Amino acid sequence: MSSTAIESDDFRAVMSRFATGVCVATSRDAAGNPVGMTINSFNSVSLDPPLILWTVGRQAPEYEAFCQASGYVIHILRDTESALSTHFATPSDDKFAGQDFDLSAMPKMKNPWLMLECTAEQSFAAADHNILVGRVTAIENNSGDESALLYYSSGYRSVGKPIG
Ligand SMILES: Cc1cc2nc3c(=O)[nH]c(=O)nc-3n(C[C@H](O)[C@H](O)[C@H](O)COP(=O)(O)O)c2cc1C
Question: Domain map of the chain by residue range?
Fold first, then answer.
């Protein structure tokens, strides 16, 4: 099979079978307005120092804000929070209206499952996205017995049974 002319539908179909967690990234734009968007491109990079990465698409309404921000907060969602994921993936004039966020400083969920506060470390242009690398400066871990929200085959799932 040729690797030189990959159809975008074929690429999407393959990548949609790569199961991921789901996060909401938040920050503030240059005017100080809170911004937030759903992402699943999040991953860890380095333990020492603690670095993470994610990618933001140029078409995203929040693209400029996140590329210019000095920091952002990553909220890893529970399997009960698919509606929150859909909400933050849908363009809106005020995504935070009616949502349970503390907006006194950097926008943060009031009852996060897992939350990482980051300072912006590096940003790399990569075609139609930017790769953002952040340094983790604070974490909140309320994982308990709850389980992660997964995104797989263009839909939401919960974690299945353990294997082995
Ligand atoms: C599960 C899920 C994961 C997403 N992951 C990303 C991501 O990692 N990076 C990104 O730029 N947009 C991602 N998006 C899209 C944005 O959240 C958002 O839908 C989009 O930027 C809205 O603008 P548009 O509808 O004009 O494209 C994701 C959406 C969903 C539903």
Answer: 21-151
Which one is the CATH code of 21-151: 2.30.110.10, 1.10.40.30, 3.60.110.10, 2.40.30.170? 2.30.110.10
- Sorted by sequence, the CB contacts under 8 Å of residue 17 that are 6+ apart come out as 152, 153
pLDDT tens per residue, range 81-119? 999 999 999 999 999 999 999 999 999 999 999 999 999
Those residues of the chain that have pLDDT short of 50 are 2
Ligand 1 pocket residue status of 113, Cβ below 6 Å = no
Protein residue with its CA nearest to atom 14 in ligand 1: 39
